[in-house]
Amino acid sequence: MLALSTGCWHLRLNFSTKKFKPKRSFCVYANGFPSFLPADVENIKDTFARDLAQRIERLPVQVPSLKTSIMSSCVRPVMQGRTDPVVLLHGFDSSVLEWRYMYPLLEEAGVDAWAIDILGWGFSGLESRPSCDVASKRNHLYQVWKSYIKKPMILVGPSLGAAVAIDFAIYHPEAVSKLVLIDASVYAEGTGEMSKLPRAFAYAGVSMALLEWVV
Q1: 79: helix, coil or strand?
Q2: How many domains does the chain have?
């Protein structure tokens, strides 16, 4: 079923199998990309990056320390399987586009995969200028999990995302069924000196996250 709403087409899946059950509609934008992405997205040549960028959504996430929700960017599964969801984080100053090659393979394998932008990086709406320190990243990810995922997940953290994943699993073990670390960059005292990165530099990551995909 197709329905036009807020500048995009909503496609709802109306079939089910023994392995999957219908979960939600997903948004297909008329111009191919969500309007909140930087204009540079049009210059991306990598087909896999373009395809995944077209799937990025922003979901409202209420963080207790803020009076307003953070519109949080992610790619979420079209349908929900019966196994534990796989939640993909990313490395320092990167985004969900880091998973442009792996995400389609996980979907083809029937994995209930989420790619989530860590608070302060990627394409989330940060107009409210929230704190993006270690605790804030953890609390934001917990609220995403609590609001949308709602069951124990296989949490995947590459590079500095591994530090975020480990920190999260320590504080919220009920939310993590398995922890997968890839080329982990982990500091005994959190994220080290990068936790002191000036906020302006963290917000600049939105545009920088696209540059490596522009050929």
Answers
A1: coil
A2: 1
Contacts of 190 (CB under 8 A, 6+ apart): 134, 163, 167
Contact (Cβ atoms closer than 8 angstroms) between residue 150 and residue 112: no
CB-based burial, 3-29: b 16+ in 10 Å, e otherwise: eeeeebeeeeeeeeeeebeebebbbeb
- The boundaries of the domain holding residue 182 are 2-211
Q: Which of these, 179, 167, 106, lies nearest to 141 by C-alpha position?
A: 167
Residue 60, CB half-sphere, CA atoms under 13 Å: how many?
5
Alpha-carbon gap, residue 5 to 21, rounded angstroms: 24
Residues contacting residue 120 through CB under 8 Å, at least 6 positions apart: 126, 132, 136, 137, 202, 203, 205
- CATH number assigned to the domain comprising residue 203: 3.40.50
Q: Are 112 and 130 in contact (CB under 8 A)?
A: no
Q: Copy the structure tokens of residue 204.
A: 């600049």
176 CB-near residues (< 8 Å, 6+ apart): 152, 153, 154, 155, 168, 169
In tens, the pLDDT along 151-206 reads: 999 999 999 999 999 999 999 999 999 999 998 877 555 444 555 555 454 444 44
This prediction has a pTM of 0.74
